[in-house]
Amino acid sequence: MSSASSSAAALNQLSDAQFRAEVRAEFETNYPEALRYPSHRLLWREQETWYRRMAGIGWIAPSWPVEFGGMGLSPRKLLIFLEEQERWGIARFQDHGIRMVGPILMQFGTQEQRDRFLPPILSCDHRYCQGYSEPEAGSDLAGIRTVAKWDNDGWTISGTKIWTTMAHDVTHMFLLARTGSDGPKQSRISFFLLALDSPGVTVRTIKDLSGAEELCEVFLDDVFVHAADLIGEINAGWTVAKSILGFERIHVGSPQLPGSGLEMLRRVLKRRDAHILPGVEDRIAQLQLDVDHLALVYEGYAVALDSGLSLESDVSMLKLWATETFQRIADLTVEIAGPAGGASGEVVLAGDAVSILGSYYRARPSTIYGGTSEIQRNILAKHVLKLPQN
Ligand SMILES: Cc1cc2nc3c(=O)[nH]c(=O)nc-3n(C[C@H](O)[C@H](O)[C@H](O)COP(=O)(O)OP(=O)(O)OC[C@H]3O[C@@H](n4cnc5c(N)ncnc54)[C@H](O)[C@@H]3O)c2cc1C
Predict the structure, then answer these.
(1) How far is the CA of 16 from the centre of ligand 1 (A)?
(2) pLDDT for the residue numbered 275
(3) Average pLDDT of the chain, as a whole number
(4) How confident is the model at residue 272 (pLDDT cuts 50, 70, 90)?
(5) Rounded average pLDDT over 47-73
(6) Ligand 1 atom closest to Cα of 140?
(7) From the CA atom positions of the chain, what is the Rg in Å?
(8) Alpha helices for 88-226 (secondary structure H)
(9) Is 129 helix (H, G, I), strand (E, B) or coil?
(10) Where are the beta strands (DSSP E) in 182-234?
C-alpha cells in the first residue's frame, strides 16, 4: 500500500506497528533531508511544499474527525504519528488552525462557519496565530483591553496584542476582545476570527535574545470584523477560549519537546569527551528516565482520551514535566559542549553543524507560553491537591 493512497479509514484499520511503518515510510521517503531538525523555526515558504503535500494526501489534520476532512486517528495512533514526525526531525508549521481553530469551529461554530473556514485550514491557505496576550494581560487573560464595538453589521476592533507567535508569517488570527461592560470580566469577552490583511491591522516583529524574529506585536486600529466571524455566542469567548486549553497543555506536555532536547544532547555527546565531567552519566541517565517516564504517563492520557474520558486539571502536570525537563536537558547540553555551548548560531562539532544555544533558547520560554509554570502549579494546588486558597 503506498502512503499517498492510504485513506484515513484504511490507516485506522492497521495495527499500531503497521501504522507506524506506513507513516515512517512516507516521512522518510518524502520529507526533504535539508529540513530535518532545523535549528530555527522555519518560515512558511520554506516548508510550504511539504505541508501542501500533507494536505494533498489528506494527512494535514491527523486529529480531526474524518467527517470534517481529517484523518480521524485515535489518540494512540495520533501519538504514533507525532512520535514519527519528531523522530524524523520534521519541522512543525504554525498549525494553530489545525490544533485550535478547527476543534473550536467543530464545537462552537455554525454550519456556515464550518463550511467557510475549515476547508482553507485543511488546504493550508488559511494559517492562524493566537491573539490572546496583551501588554497588560498574560496570565490574567480576563484583563484584556482590546475592545470590539458593534458597528452596523459587524464589529470594530481596537487594541494591541503582543507575543503573537509568527503573526507576520500567517494569514489569520483568532482573538479575544471585550464586547460587554457588565458582570465579571470573563463574561464580557468574545472570540473572533480575523484576516490579517484587513484594513487597520499592523504587524511588527520583536527580535528576541537569540536574534530570531518569531514573536510579534499586532496593532488593531478600528478593524472591521463581520458579524458572521464571531465564533460562539456574544460574551461567551471565555468558554470558547478555555475549551482548547486542556488540549494545548497536553500538546505542550508531550515528550516531543524534551525528546528533541535529548536528540541535541546526544549529538553533542558523540563529539566531545563529555564523560570526563563528574557525574555526567548519572545526570543523563536521570534525564532519559524522566523523559521515558513522561512518555508513559503521556500515553496514559492518550489512552484515557481514547476511551472517551475528558481532560481534567491534572493535565497541567504534563506541561510542567515536559518543559522543566527540557530546560534541564538544555542546561546540561550547554554545560558539556564547553566553549561551543556559548556560541550563537550553528557550530560545527566534528563535522556536524549543531545549534546548541538554539536548543537552549527554545527551552527557556517553554515554561512561559501556554500558561506559566506558576500558573500550572496554582491549577494543580487548587483543583487537584485542593489546597486552601488565600
Ligand atoms: C515564546 C512565547 C510565545 C508566545 N506566543 C503567544 C501567542 O502566540 N499568542 C499569545 O496570545 N500569547 C503568546 N505568548 C504570551 C504568553 O501566553 C504569556 O507570556 C504568558 O501567558 C505570561 O503572561 P505575561 O508575559 O503577561 O506575564 P505575567 O502574567 O505578567 O506574569 C509575570 C510573572 O508573574 C507570575 N504570575 C502571574 N500571575 C501569577 C499568579 N496568579 N500566581 C503566581 N505567579 C503568577 C508568572 O508566572 C510570571 O512568572 C507567548 C509567550 C512566549 C514567551
Answers:
(1) 38
(2) 63
(3) 90
(4) low
(5) 94
(6) 29
(7) 22
(8) 96, 102-108, 111-122
(9) strand
(10) 189-195, 201-206, 215-226, 230-231
